[in-house]
Specification:
- By secondary structure, the chain is mainly α.
- The protein is built from 2 helices and no strands.
- It is elongated, with a radius of gyration of 13 Å.
- The two termini are about 20 Å apart.
Length: about 60
């Protein structure tokens, strides 16, 4: 069975969501704006072709 094309995205979300929220809270000082910023970032990431991210997203 072929691997789902969004496996790379789910892996990135699992690995980076918490650290990015933590970092964003350190900037915003508030949890909800931090979550919103990280969510927006992942929405933009989900629209990218995985080949365009080669070398820019640590595996």
């Amino acid at each position: 069975m072929p691997e789902s094309p969004n496996v790379w995205f789910r892996a990135a979300l699992a690995r980076y969501e918490r650290p990015l929220i933590h970092y964003a809270v350190s900037i915003t000082g508030e949890l909800e704006p931090a979550r919103d910023a990280v969510q927006d970032t992942f929405i933009r990431l989900s629209n990218e072709e995985p080949s365009r991210l080669d070398g820019h997203l640590e595996q």
